[in-house]
Amino acid sequence: MMKQRIKDKKLAKDKRVSRLPKPLQLILNKILPVLVFLGIGFFFAPTISMYAQNNDVKGLNNQAKAVMFYKADCEKCQKAYPVVFWHNVFHANQPKEQIQVINVQIPDNQHYISDYGVQETPTFMATNNQQDRGVLTDKKQIKNFIERK
Predict the structure, then answer these.
(1) What are the residue ranges of helices labelled H in the chain?
(2) pTM attached to this predicted model
(3) Per-residue model confidence (pLDDT) at position 8
(4) Are the C-beta atoms of 124 and 68 separated by less than 8 Å?
(5) How, if at all, do strands 123-126 and 99-103 pair?
(6) 3-class DSSP state of 102
(7) Which of 108, 122, 131, 136 is the most exposed place for a label (fewest CB within 10 A)?
(8) Closest CA to 146 of 98, 101, 103
(9) Phi and psi (nearest 5°) for 88?
């Protein structure tokens, strides 16, 4: 008798699920999870990159358009980094359009502070003219700096 009740509950549950139209089932079961995963990735990718990459930079990339010196725990840097991250993603196949990012909080990269006179982060510096630099946090300022290089 117990097995029959369990079997009846399972059949009732299967009937409720099967009432949804097949296109809606496809959306709920296949497409929605992918969209949620991509959405989460979109928001967290810059943060993960900010902390996980740029830890041991061997030197300035002279092909890059500019360099951004930052510290991962700096609030201004956390605001500016996603702008540079997405710029680099959209220009992934264009090395001359890239903005090199260097986390000067990492001990191996701290020599860049004295080597390039970084006094505040985030400091943006043109690779072809080291005197052309600025501490930029506003999205519009960063885009203007990148476009005029």
Answers:
(1) 2-18, 22-26, 32-52, 75-90, 111-115, 139-147
(2) 0.69
(3) 56
(4) yes
(5) unpaired
(6) strand
(7) 131
(8) 98
(9) -65, -35
